[in-house]
Amino acid sequence: MGRLQGKGAIVLGAAGAGNMGQVIAKRFKDEGAQVLVAGRKDGELARFAEEIGCEWAHCDITRRDEVFDLARMAAAKLGGVHIGVNATGWGLLKPFLDNTQEELEAMTALQFIGPFFFYQAMIGAMNGGGSIIQISSATATIMLNDHAAYMGAKAGADHVLRCVANEFGARGIRANSISPGLTDTPMTAGAKQTPGIYEAFASAYPLGRIGTSEDIAAAAVWLASDECFMTGQNLQVNGGLTLRRNPTQEEITASVMAAMKAG
After folding, report:
1. CB-based burial of residue 260 (10 Å sphere; 0-12 exposed, 13-18 middle, 19+ buried)?
2. Angle, CA 207 vertex, CA 201 and CA 213 arms, to 5°
């Protein structure tokens, strides 16, 4: 029997082929959960849902009505909501002084206001308790150049989760986040293909490698399971990155230049 047998799980942010949300959803399904994946790309959601045998629904996290509709639909289709994972995100890389009002509003909507709606909807749907999981980032704790809007929004959502944990623990609702570092996903494929970028980050990881979506999915399974007696916490699932630091922009540039010369 799987560790999530009999549980209904929503994974929002699973509309990208092979992305972290899809890897988490598949792992949940393998662990016995009834899964509903959601996001904004209907075609990919339908394809993936057929592939692993789960439900799917369109949901734009920045629209409150769609988030609450998602919770109601999942409760009906899954026989209840016990797990809610928000794996949405936008990895905007831009110098601090160049961030526009439009970009900041879009980032806030996607990574702070939208998650706030998601937590509200999950609390309403979890009648018998459950686990809310936010995919955060190591950069909510440590620095990375040209990433301030993303980092600030992730850190804010982490703190809101602590409020959820504090206020709703008596109802059996746990709320935790997971912080990957640089992770080998389709979203970082461009960086991986540029010689020198991954090499610039490699020495920052005490465990000696870049993380994978499977690493994050394994942590999510534990947070979602009844074995987890933890709430209001942030799991740094990044190979020890936060013991050290991300490289500076100058170090990344130097690594890329060295790789180009070597090539």
Report:
1. exposed
2. 75
pTM for the model: 0.96
Where does the pLDDT of residue 85 fall: very low under 50, low under 70, confident under 90, or very high at 90 and above?
Answer: very high
Would you give the end-to-end CA distance of the chain in angstroms?
50
Q: pLDDT (tens digit, 9 = 90+) per residue, 125-161? A: 999 999 999 999 999 999 999 999 999 999 999 999 9
Give the CA count within 13 Å in the CB-facing half-sphere of 180.
24
150 is catalytic: yes
Q: Where are the beta strands (DSSP E) in 33-121?
A: 34-39, 55-58, 83-86
pLDDT digits (tens, 9 = 90+) for 207-223: 999 999 999 999 999 99
* Residue pair 176/232 in contact by the 8 Å Cβ criterion: yes
pLDDT above 90: residue 262: no
Which residues sit opposite 176 in a β-bridge? 133
Residue type, 15: A
CB 221 within 8 A of CB 27: yes
Catalytic site residue from 119, 150, 198, 205 = 150
How far apart CA 76 and CA 242 sit, in angstroms, is 41
Which amino acid makes up residue 200?
A
List strand residue ranges (DSSP E) for the chain, in order.
8-12, 34-39, 55-58, 83-86, 130-135, 173-178, 183-184, 211-212, 234-235
Single out the residue of 137, 135, 121, 122 nearest to residue 174, CA to CA: 122
Closest to 114 in 3D by CA, of 23, 39, 15: 39
State the CB neighbour count (10 A cutoff) for residue 42: 12
In which order are the strands placed within the sheet that holds 234-235? 55-58, 34-39, 8-12, 83-86, 130-135, 173-178, 234-235
